[in-house]
Write a structure and sequence with these properties.
CATH architecture of the largest domain: Up-down Bundle
CATH topology of the largest domain: Butyryl-CoA Dehydrogenase, subunit A, domain 3
Shape: globular
Bound molecules: flavin-adenine dinucleotide
Number of helices: 13
Helix content: 40-55%
CATH class of the largest domain: Mainly Alpha
CATH superfamily of the largest domain: Butyryl-CoA Dehydrogenase, subunit A, domain 3
Number of domains: 3
Strand order of the largest sheet: 1-4-5-8
Radius of gyration: 21 Å
Order of helices and strands: HHHHHHEEEEHEEEEHHEEHHHH
Structural class: alpha+beta
Largest sheet: 4 strands, mixed
Number of strands: 10
Length: about 400
């Protein structure tokens, strides 16, 4: 039997997420939206860290880690339920602070040696460490990050040169590295042999912030996601010992392709955003009257709201299905269900936010109402963790 009702623990987790959203995320976002260019970035970073620590204390960042390493031992579906609640308050906080920090440690869980698991997972759980994954690179490694063509000139150029017992990393990561300016630990994808095809040589390295040679650039200004901290990461002769390599040399693509939890958790954050756009539009449509009745009673408006609800429900089913498949059919989850779920959740968030802007009329484009901000936030999802076109192209061989 297929039962989509959350159990008692999941309901409790969702309640905890809702309370955290009300008590911690919304006041932070209200404060952030009132800031301007003169606000000290250090102040913004410090408050972002406080928010992260508060969520971490509730177990949000180690929800997916097994109990034997000190984690909560939750499943992907649990994280999805939580992240929709956080995403309903703010998609950037949900995605960058909580989805990312809950899923990046899975790299170590999946591919690390037992001693790396014990040491690194222990550190992530015990300390308030913010994580970052540095893969993409300007010009050469956006959509072509994992390009399967056997052409050594394509994709990531950052090099990890063998040096005695360790490696030396040099290269430049794109301006979109999430959490770059806040991060305590980076997971950097680099090539151990630039002459060999991309897929045979990409490897993942664990690098602590502050390691000599690692520098973070200026914060990238996005059209939305005010709570985010994206920046370039520069690596200039970063010396690491051999224990920094996670998994084996050349295993990078395999590691990243077997973590459907990342796109699924991101998708869940966008369900929250899509839900908030519906709520915003509904409240307005019930209040605002034109031609003698609330605008929800004009069919053109009512139908838009019905579409928003139907598409949100459809996207949620896809995200839940993908999350459940992580346990039952991880191959299908990774190749088809996760990219489809991320594509659908972001598409619905974009469409719903545009409909909300329409329904709010002139107020849709004011700062007084959230609809315009939510639309910008929704569009940020389009290229984050691969564009919808690249995700769909990646599905084709598995159809
Ligand atoms: C908010 C945000 C957060 C991010 N976080 C991170 C992060 O934490 N770590 C990280 O490493 N990177 C991160 N990125 C980078 C992200 O992964 C890339 O931006 C994304 O993969 C797209 O690459 P690009 O910008 O180079 O687009 P391009 O590759 O330049 O693509 C431009 C357009 O061409 C299309 N296109 C390109 N190639 C093809 C093709 N072969 N077939 C069909 N269409 C194609 C694309 O779909 C797109 O529409 C982030 C990006 C954003 C926006």
């Amino acid at each position: 039997m297929l039962d989509l009702r959350p159990d008692d623990d999941q309901r409790m987790l969702r309640d905890t997420g809702q309370q955290f959203a009300r008590r911690d995320i919304l006041p932070f976002i209200e404060w952030l939206n009132a800031t301007d260019a003169s606000t000290d970035i250090e102040d913004i970073s410090a408050r972002t860290r406080q928010l992260f620590s508060a969520g971490k204390a509730l177990g949000f960042t180690h929800l997916l880690l097994p109990e034997r390493y000190g984690g909560v031992g939750g499943r992907c579906i649990d994280a999805v339920l939580l992240l929709e609640e956080l995403g309903a308050a703010d998609v950037a906080v949900a995605a960058d602070l909580f989805a990312l920090n809950a899923t990046v440690p899975l790299i170590v869980l999946q591919a690390g040696s037992e001693s790396q698991r014990e040491q690194l997972l222990g550190e992530f759980i015990e300390q308030d460490l913010i994580l970052s994954g540095a893969l993409s690179e300007p010009t050469v490694a956006g959509s072509e990050l994992f390009c399967p063509q056997p052409d050594a000139s394509l994709g990531i150029r950052t090099q990890a040169r063998r040096d005695g017992d360790g490696f030396v990393l040099s290269g430049q990561k794109s301006a979109f590295i999430t959490n770059a300016a806040l991060a305590d630990r980076f997971f950097v994808m680099a090539r151990t042999d630039p002459a060999r095809p991309l897929h045979d040589t990409l490897s993942v390295f664990h690098v602590a912030a502050g390691t000599p040679g690692l520098q973070v650039g200026r914060r990238t200004e996005l059209i939305g996601w005010r709570a985010s901290h994206h920046a370039e990461v520069l690596l200039d002769g970063v010396r690491l010992d051999s224990s920094a390599l996670i998994g084996r040399e050349g295993q990078g693509v395999a590691i990243m392709s077997s973590l459907p939890q990342m796109p699924i958790c991101l998708a869940a954050c966008f369900l929250g955003l899509a839900r908030t756009t519906l709520q915003t539009a509904l409240e307005y449509a019930r209040e605002r009257r034109s031609w003698g009745k609330p605008i929800i009673e004009h069919q053109a408006v009512g139908l838009k709201l019905a579409d928003m609800r139907a598409e949100l429900d459809a996207a949620r089913l896809m995200v839940w299905d993908a999350a459940l498949a992580v346990d039952t059919d991880p191959q299908a989850a990774a190749t088809l269900k996760a990219p489809a779920a991320k594509t659908m959740a972001v598409d619905v968030a974009i469409r719903n936010s545009q409909r909300a802007v329409e329904i709010l009329g002139a107020y849709g484009v004011t700062r007084e109402y959230p609809a315009g901000r939510l639309m910008n936030d929704a569009w940020v999802g389009y290229a984050c963790d691969f564009t919808r076109d690249m995700l769909r192209l990646g599905m084709v061989p598995f159809l």
